[in-house]
C-alpha cells in the first residue's frame, strides 16, 4: 500500500506545482509568490524523493512555488542541461541545481548570472563561482565516520573490502577517499582491499561482493558507498553464507533499515535529504531578498545502527 | 553438449545441413573458449575454481542468461528485442503488485507475472507484424514504455517482499538437500532445456529458423509468418517475465529502476554464443555458453584484481573476436 499512497501524494504534488507554475507566470500581480526552479540529479531514487519532499514542505511553509525535476539516471548530463535551459526559460526568481557535470552547465549558469537569477547548488558542489552557496552533505567526513565505525567493530584489525558506486562522480570519489584516508591515518591494523565499483546496481554489487569474498576468504568487513552498493554487499554476504563479515552501508531505504534491524548490517551513514531540500529553498529565498549566504551549508549526516534506529531524531532522517 | 542441436530440422535440404554444421562448429568454438577461460582463471587464482565461487558465477549468470535465452528466439527469427532489460524491471514490479499489493499466493503471482511478460512480448509482436514497425524501433519504444511504467506503477520506490520469505526461495533457496545451490540456477537450466527443445525439435522452432533465413520464401511456402513471429515475441516475453521473477526473488524486492542496460548484455551473450544477428542461425545452448563466458570473465577479472575499468574493455574485445571468428568461417564455407 505504501508505495501507492506515495505515488498518489506525488501525483498531487506534481499537479499542484504544475498549476502553481502556470499561475506564477500569468498572474504575477496579486500572488507575487517567488518561484524557485530546482533541478536535481534524479527523481527515481528514494534519496531524491526525500530531497523533493523536504523542498516541497519548506516551500509550502514559506509560501514559495517550486518545481522539482531531474533526469532518469545520474549519467544523463545532456538531459539535465536541457532541463536547466528550459527552467531558465520560465523566468524563475532563483534556481536550485545539483549538477551532474559542472562544466556542462557553466554556460547556462553564466546566462543566469546575467539575468540576475541567483543559483543555489546542492548535493555536490558546482565547480564554478556563480552559485552563491552549496547545501550538501560533507561526504568525506561522513565516509570517515563509516570507516571509524567499521574499525571499531573489527577492533582495529582485519581485511576490509569496498564496493563503491562510481569512480567518476563527486560523491563516489569522496565516499571512497573519506573512507580510505581515515583508515590509513587511524587504523594501521586494517588492510584495505582494492576498491571495486558496481555502479550502484544491487545485483552487480552482490556479484562483486561474492568475488571479493571468494578471492579473500579471510575478509572481515565490507563497506558499500550508497544504497544500491550497500544492499548488494548485504545480499552478496548473505549468499556466500559468511555471516560474520561486518557490513557498513551508506544512505537509507527500507532494505537497509530491515538489514540493520535483522542484524545483517552493522549500521550505515544516512544523509539528511529532507534538510538538503529545505535548505535549498530557504537559501534561495535569502538570495532573492539579497541576504548574504555562507559558502557551504552543511546539511549533516548520522550514523545509525540497531541501537539508535528507533530514536526520533534518526527516524526523522531515514527515508524509505 | 551436442544433443539439442543435433536435431535441427530437415529444413530446405542443403541449407538446413549447412546451418546445422555451422551452428555446431560455433558452439564448439564458444564452448572451447569458455573452457579456456575457466582453465586460465583456475591457474591465475587459487580462489577461482572453488565450489562457492563456481556457484557465484552460475548465480550471476541467471538474469542475463534468462533474458538471453528469450532473446535468442527473436534474434533467430531475424528480429531484435531491446525491451528485455526494462521489461524485466516492469515484470519484477508486477510480481510485487500481484504478490505484495494484491496478496495473491506466490505460485499464482509468479504465473501472472509470466503471463504479463508474455503480454509485453505480444505487444512487441503486434507492433512488428501488424504495424510493420522495424523490430529495433518497436522494441526500443517498448523499452521506454516499460521503463516508465515500472516507475509509475511502483510509485518510483522498490516493492519489498519481506514477510513472504517463500518468494525469495525461488531464487536463493535450494531444493537440493544439504546444499546451498541456488534454485535460480536450476530454473535457468530447466528453462533453457525446454527452450532448446522447442527451438530444435518443434514446428515452432523450424519456422523460427525459416523466417530468420528467408522471410519472403517462408511466407510464399504458405506459412503464416505473422502468427509465428508474434508467438516468437510472446515466448521472449515469457522469459522477460521469468527474469523479472528471478531478479526480484534474489533481491527480495522489485527495483523499478534497474533494468536499463541489461538488454545489451543479453544480446552480447546471444552473439558470443554464435547466433547470427541477421537471423536464421543460432542455438539456445550457444546462448547459455555465451552468458557463462560473460559472467566467468567478470568474476575471474574481479578475482584476479584486474582494475575494473579494464573489465569492459576485455569484454568488448571478446565480442569482436567471437563475431569475427563466426563470420570468417561463414565466408570460407
UniProtKB/TrEMBL annotation, chain A:
Subcellular location: Cell envelope
Single GO molecular function: carbohydrate binding
GO CC terms in record: cell envelope
Keywords: Signal
Stretches assigned to the Periplasmic binding protein domain: 36-292
PROSITE patterns for the chain: PROKAR_LIPOPROTEIN
InterPro entries linked: Peripla_BP_I (IPR028082), SBP_2_dom (IPR025997)
Signal peptide: 1-22
Matches recorded under Pfam families: Peripla_BP_4
Similarity remark: Belongs to the bacterial solute-binding protein 2 family.
PANTHER family reported in the protein's UniProt record: D-ALLOSE-BINDING PERIPLASMIC PROTEIN-RELATED (PTHR46847:SF1)
Protein's UniProt name: LacI family transcriptional regulator
Organism name: Streptomyces oceani
TrEMBL record, chain B:
Record CDD domains: TM_PBP1_transp_AraH_like (cd06579)
Superkingdom assignment: Bacteria
Pfam families xrefs: BPD_transp_2
Main location (coarse class): membrane
Keywords linked to the UniProt accession: Cell membrane, Membrane, Transmembrane, Transmembrane helix
Membrane-crossing residue ranges in chain numbering: 28-45, 57-75, 82-100, 106-124, 136-161, 181-199, 230-251, 284-304
GO MF term set: transmembrane transporter activity
Gene Ontology CC terms, in alphabetical order: plasma membrane
Protein's membrane topology: Multi-pass membrane protein
Subcellular compartments: Cell membrane
Protein name (Swiss-Prot/TrEMBL): Ribose ABC transporter permease
Organism: Streptomyces oceani
Amino acid at each position: 500500500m505504501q508505495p501507492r499512497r506515495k505515488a498518489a501524494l506525488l501525483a498531487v504534488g506534481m499537479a499542484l506545482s504544475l498549476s502553481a507554475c502556470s499561475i506564477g507566470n500569468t498572474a504575477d500581480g496579486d500572488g507575487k509568490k517567488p518561484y524557485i526552479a530546482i533541478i536535481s540529479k534524479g527523481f527515481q531514487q528514494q534519496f531524491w524523493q526525500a530531497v523533493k519532499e523536504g523542498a516541497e514542505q519548506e516551500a509550502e511553509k514559506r509560501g514559495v512555488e517550486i518545481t522539482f525535476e531531474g533526469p532518469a539516471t545520474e549519467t544523463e548530463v545532456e538531459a539535465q542541461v536541457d532541463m536547466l535551459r528550459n527552467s531558465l526559460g520560465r523566468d524563475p526568481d532563483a534556481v536550485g541545481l545539483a549538477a551532474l557535470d559542472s562544466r556542462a552547465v557553466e554556460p547556462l549558469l553564466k546566462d543566469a548570472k546575467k539575468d540576475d537569477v541567483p543559483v543555489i547548488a546542492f548535493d555536490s558542489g558546482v565547480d564554478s563561482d556563480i552559485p552563491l552557496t552549496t547545501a550538501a552533505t560533507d561526504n568525506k567526513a561522513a565516509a570517515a565516520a563509516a570507516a571509524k565505525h567499521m574499525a571499531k567493530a573489527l577492533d582495529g584489525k582485519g581485511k576490509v573490502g569496498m564496493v563503491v558506486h562510481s569512480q567518476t562522480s563527486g560523491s563516489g570519489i569522496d565516499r571512497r577517499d573519506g573512507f580510505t584516508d581515515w583508515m590509513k591515518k587511524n587504523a594501521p591494523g586494517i588492510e584495505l582491499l582494492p576498491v571495486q565499483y558496481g555502479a550502484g546496481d544491487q545485483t552487480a554489487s552482490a556479484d562483486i561482493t561474492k568475488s571479493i569474498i571468494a578471492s579473500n576468504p579471510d575478509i572481515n568487513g565490507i563497506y558499500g558507498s550508497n544504497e544500491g552498493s550497500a544492499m548488494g554487499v548485504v545480499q552478496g554476504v548473505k549468499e556466500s553464507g559468511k555471516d560474520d563479515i561486518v557490513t557498513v552501508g551508506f544512505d537509507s531505504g527500507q532494505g537497509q533499515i530491515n538489514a540493520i534491524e535483522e542484524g545483517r548490517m552493522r549500521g550505515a551513514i544516512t544523509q539528511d535529504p529532507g534538510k538538503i531540500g529545505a535548505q535549498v529553498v530557504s537559501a534561495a529565498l535569502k538570495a532573492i531578498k539579497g541576504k548574504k549566504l555562507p559558502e557551504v551549508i552543511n546539511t549533516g549526516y548520522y550514523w545509525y545502527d540497531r541501537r539508535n534506529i528507533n530514536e526520533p531524531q534518526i527516524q526523522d532522517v531515514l527515508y524509505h | 553438449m551436442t544433443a539439442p542441436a543435433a536435431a535441427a530440422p530437415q529444413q530446405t535440404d542443403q541449407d538446413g545441413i549447412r546451418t546445422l554444421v555451422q551452428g555446431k562448429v560455433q558452439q564448439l568454438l564458444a564452448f572451447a573458449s569458455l573452457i579456456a577461460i575457466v582453465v586460465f582463471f583456475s591457474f591465475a587464482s587459487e580462489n577461482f575454481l572453488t565450489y562457492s565461487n563456481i556457484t557465484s558465477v552460475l548465480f550471476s549468470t541467471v538474469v542475463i542468461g534468462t533474458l538471453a535465452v528469450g532473446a535468442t528466439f527473436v534474434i533467430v527469427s531475424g528480429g531484435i528485442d531491446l525491451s528485455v532489460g526494462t521489461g524485466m524491471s516492469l515484470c519484477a514490479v508486477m510480481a510485487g503488485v500481484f504478490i505484495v499489493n494484491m496478496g495473491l499466493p506466490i505460485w499464482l503471482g509468479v504465473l501472472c507475472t509470466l503471463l504479463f511478460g508474455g503480454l509485453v512480448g505480444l505487444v512487441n509482436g503486434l507492433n512488428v507484424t501488424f504495424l510493420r514497425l522495424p523490430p529495433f524501433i518497436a522494441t526500443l519504444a517498448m523499452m521506454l514504455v516499460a521503463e516508465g511504467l515500472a516507475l509509475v506503477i511502483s510509485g518510483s520506490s522498490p516493492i519489498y517482499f519481506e514477510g513472504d520469505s517463500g518468494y525469495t526461495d525461488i531464487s536463493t533457496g535450494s531444493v537440493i538437500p544439504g546444499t546451498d545451490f541456488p534454485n535460480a540456477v536450476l530454473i535457468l537450466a530447466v528453462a533453457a532445456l525446454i527452450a532448446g527443445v522447442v527451438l530444435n525439435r518443434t514446428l515452432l522452432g523450424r519456422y523460427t529458423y525459416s523466417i530468420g533465413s528467408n522471410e519472403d520464401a517462408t511466407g510464399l511456402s504458405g506459412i503464416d509468418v505473422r502468427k509465428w513471429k508474434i508467438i516468437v515475441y510472446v515466448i521472449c516475453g515469457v522469459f522477460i517475465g521469468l527474469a523479472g521473477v528471478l531478479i526480484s526473488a534474489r533481491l527480495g524486492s522489485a527495483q523499478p529502476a534497474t533494468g536499463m542496460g541489461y538488454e545489451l548484455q543479453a544480446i552480447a551473450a546471444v552473439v558470443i554464443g554464435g547466433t547470427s544477428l541477421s537471423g536464421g542461425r543460432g542455438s539456445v545452448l550457444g546462448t547459455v555458453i555465451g552468458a557463462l563466458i560473460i559472467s566467468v570473465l567478470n568474476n575471474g577479472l574481479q578475482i584476479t584484481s584486474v582494475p575494473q575499468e579494464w573489465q569492459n574493455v576485455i569484454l568488448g574485445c571478446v565480442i569482436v573476436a567471437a563475431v569475427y571468428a563466426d563470420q570468417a568461417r561463414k565466408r570460407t564455407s
